[in-house]
Design brief:
transmembrane, mainly alpha, elongated, 0% strand, transmembrane helix
Length: 103
């Protein structure tokens, strides 16, 4: 059986884009985390876990593919952080929202 090395080397010309995009998105995740706060796994709610998985997926997609683009990926990750922050804020400040969202 012969290995087709073209499969592994055909897109090497986009490696600089992938490297720069990954560094930028990673830096934005650190900045967003500093702004909105970081929770340990023991303090995570279901919404926090879903948010973490979605952010990881967007990071991987923005870094490895062109869909979503770097700017759209950064914006989407910021929106996910904001939504999670707002859900947490409303949960702690409203018993009605807490009863509605927390089981």
């Amino acid at each position: 059986m012969e290995i087709n090395w073209d499969h592994f080397t055909k897109n090497l010309d986009i490696m600089p884009e992938i490297l720069v995009g990954t560094v930028i998105i990673y830096a934005l995740i650190i900045i967003y985390t500093r702004i909105f706060g970081l929770k340990s796994f023991s303090k995570m709610t279901g919404f926090d876990f879903i948010n973490t998985v979605a952010i990881g997926n967007l990071l991987a997609m923005s870094a490895a593919t062109s869909s979503p683009s770097l700017l759209v990926g950064a914006l989407l990750i910021g929106i996910f952080y904001l939504i999670n922050y707002l859900i947490t804020w409303f949960t702690f400040n409203s018993e009605t929202v807490e009863d509605l969202l927390c089981f």
